[in-house]
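Async update (no meeting this week)

Hi team, since we skipped the sync, here's where things stand on the single-chain job. The sequence we agreed to prioritize is pasted below, unchanged from the tracker. I ran it this morning and attached the output directly underneath so nobody has to dig for it. Comments welcome in thread, and please keep replies under the output.
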Amino acid sequence: MFRHFDEATAADWKPIDEKFVAFQKGIAGHMIAHLQLLAGHDLGYPIDRYVHSLQTATRALRDGADDEMVVCALLHDIGDTLAPVNHGPMAAAMLAPYISPLNAWMIEHHEEFQGFFYAEYFGGDKHARDQYRDHPAFARTARFTDLWDQKAFDRDYDTLPIETFLPAMERIFAREPWGAHTRTEEA
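Output:
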């Protein structure tokens, strides 16, 4: 086995590639395990971040969103545990190999859009999202935050369990990373 990449041979890389491929096949499960780290983290919100994520996905599903959008709704805050001040870009980076560029942009910028509902209480501009009004993902991002994300803090809402979303997770994460779905502006 090599000590440096410049010492490696094709034979050295073969078992590494095999293990990588096997690991990659379990990416949906890895994402769920990381999402579950949000359980118990309420940060003062009425519900914890895990239930918020489930509730956002539940709202998207019940509103007729496709698999990709439902998975985006489920995982939009997955970066909160490691990068609370830039969780949107972190979540977008994690999902970008599997989703459309418009949905990746939506996840990356969702906090700026959601700020419409609270930014003024922290000295921010509630209309900051208007700077993106001409962006092709503006309407979808506003819809995501306005209809699903900002409403998903309801203790009394009939939130679906994680098992509901596992088939969609498996379908999305079975896609070839950086495949054709990532080279289109459609979602």
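Quick observations from my side:
The chain is about 50% helix and 0% strand.
Residues 62 and 167 are 16 Å apart (CA to CA).
Reply here if anything looks off.
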